[in-house]
Amino acid sequence: MTIPAICRLPSHRPMRSHLLPRPESVSGSGVTNPPGGHMATKDKPKTKTAAKPAAKAAPAKAAPAKAAAPKVNALLKPLTPSAELADLVGAAPLPRTAAVSKLWEHIKKNNLQDPKDKRQILADAKLKKIFGKDKVSMFEMNKHLAAHLK
Known about the structure:
- It is a single chain.
- By secondary structure, the chain is mostly helical.
- It has a domain at 76-146: MDM2 (Orthogonal Bundle), CATH 1.10.245.10.
- Helix content is 37%, strand content 4%.
- It has five helices and two strands; from the N terminus they run αααβαβα.
- Strands 1-2 form a two-stranded antiparallel ribbon.
């Protein structure tokens, strides 16, 4: 059997025959591959059992119970801001993501990012109460914010 140049390895040695795609029938042996390929399994006759219909009925009763109590995503859970944070985001409970968004609105509106390094936030009087420092990186901001959300 001659192997075309495309199928040769870079060292120009022929590929192993078990790695080559098998033809539909092996010449000389009279053996043919099954229709689904050489690894196809034979179809087994299906049998009916009485346990399967009973198992399907049980989950139908459990489905309404799951729908009644949906899981709340921890990031979307409303949290109550502290008095210092309430000056910026409001006193109503809000998700952590909304609190971060409102904090960024305040930072952008008042141009509180360091012009040389935009990752640094220069705290004004309101932000100084939350951060406790004059300058905070945007990555530290979430750490300080977490202390003010309960």
